[in-house]
Design goal:
Blueprint (H helix, E strand, L loop, with lengths): L1 E9 L2 E7 L9 H12 L9 E6 L8 E7 L4 E2 L3 H15 L3 E5 L4 E7 L8 E6 L33 E4 L3 E6 L2 H5 L2 H9 L11 E7 L4 E8 L3 E3 L3 H13 L8 E6 L2 E10 L2 E9 L1 E10 L6 E8 L3 H18 L3
Parallel strand pairs: 2-3, 4-6, 10-11, 12-14
Antiparallel strand pairs: 1-2, 1-17, 3-4, 4-5, 6-7, 7-8, 8-16, 9-10, 11-12, 12-13, 14-15, 15-16, 17-18
């Protein structure tokens, strides 16, 4: 079969976009998973953290639907960086500045925003629903919530907060020494392998506060491994810093990551929360590929580069310079 796609990234978290609105593909569920495993492999000419399938939505007032398949073929309930790419694609398709996109758990507001950095295409997406109930991750502990508390099975010195946004996250505030150690890799691999705590695995983020209004987030993403950035992880981490009174609700938080920088604004409404995630939606290239009938091999028929990455690298360089000067011990 022949497939058209776009490769793009949000904060270096890269994806292949496949448009099922304009193209008459007839993928089965197995096809979508197998395509993710095949095309996202870093051993191929494409390689990515996952595939974003863009479909029609039957929900009222929505212009499209996003499904996210990780590189291992598993489906994610949400992806903030990916949603920004889908927001750009759908807004440009329908000539809109804002719309609503259906995701697995909720219909979410998205909108085009002023450039985060000169000439870097920028979109804002809503991150919700949010739950601190451990059953929603799930996390098997003899309690209903876990907020800034230790998990003795994982570490004797770190504390954790667990939340679903709506995909599961485990957040720990750390110093630079923890970021430089192997502890995040070790405990992330433990909770994403066979284990009694997280039967479905979990995204694990180490967060370093760098003064009022700035944090660094490093994430081991379920189904992927360490990524340049994870949008829902950065959103969840921003919320945790507000709960800890490190940052403030309703104010912009600059969130730095290995792929660059985004901004988050955490909103509190009564006893619930939602988050605005603001960042780049950068296109790298479009391509046409031919995939064999068994979805075991593919070839690239054509490929056309965009010229957006060089501009984005200026933002990335500025973000890395800030990080090197401001990470706290």
């Amino acid at each position: 079969m022949q497939i058209k796609l776009i490769k793009g990234h949000g904060s270096g978290n890269d994806f292949l976009l496949i448009d099922e609105i304009s193209n008459s593909y007839s993928f089965s569920e197995e096809d979508r998973a197998n395509l993710a495993v095949l095309l996202c492999s870093r051993n191929t000419e494409l390689g990515a953290d996952g595939i974003l399938y863009i479909l029609n939505s039957n929900h009222k007032d929505t212009k499209g639907r996003m499904r996210v398949f990780n590189a291992d073929g598993s489906e994610a309930s949400m992806c903030g960086n990916g949603l920004r790419l889908v927001a750009r694609y759908i807004c440009e398709m329908f000539a809109l500045d804002n719309t609503v996109i259906e995701t697995m758990k909720a219909d979410l507001m998205v909108s085009k925003q002023p450039d985060l950095f000169p000439e870097v295409s920028t979109y804002q997406v809503e991150i919700s629903p949010i739950s601190f109930q451990l059953t929603d991750l799930p996390l098997t502990l003899n309690k209903s919530t876990l907020i800034n508390e230790p998990i003795k099975e994982l570490s004797n010195e770190l504390s954790f907060t667990a939340l679903a946004v709506p995909n599961p996250h485990l957040i720990s505030m750390v110093g630079a020494k923890h970021l430089e150690s192997n502890i995040q890799k070790q405990l992330s691999e433990k909770v994403n392998g066979p284990n009694e705590l997280f039967p479905d695995g979990v995204n694990v983020s180490f967060v370093n506060p760098m003064g009022q209004g700035a944090i660094y987030v490093n994430t081991f993403e379920r189904g992927v491994g360490f990524t340049n950035a994870c949008g829902t992880a950065m959103s969840a981490s921003s919320l945790v810093t507000c709960l800890s009174e490190i940052n403030e609700f309703e104010k912009v938080i600059n969130v730095y990551n290995n792929g660059g920088k985004v901004q988050c604004v955490v909103h509190k409404k009564n006893d619930s929360f939602y988050i605005d995630l603001i960042g780049n939606a950068t296109y790298l290239y479009n391509a046409v590929i031919d995939v064999d009938s068994e979805i075991e091999a593919f070839s690239i028929s054509s490929k056309q580069e965009f010229h957006e990455q060089k501009i984005y690298e200026k933002l990335q360089s500025e973000a890395q310079n800030f990080l090197h000067s401001n990470l706290k011990g």
